Amino acid sequence: MKANELREMNLTDLNNALVNSKKELFNLRFQLATGQLENQVKIRSVRRDIARINTIITEKQALS
Question: Has UniProt tagged this entry with the keyword Ribonucleoprotein (predicted)?
Fold first, then answer.
């Protein structure tokens, strides 16, 4: 997800995206532990998406 796309979202949408990303990260870690995950780079990209979402949430809360 790009930062510009995230900045256009409101706080409720950002929180929903954060929950979905955390669920996806959990599932990826579970797949990694069971040996089913083929592309391990996906974990890093989801972690960075979570960091981006948290950063934008913090920015929006500071502006409010």
Answer: yes
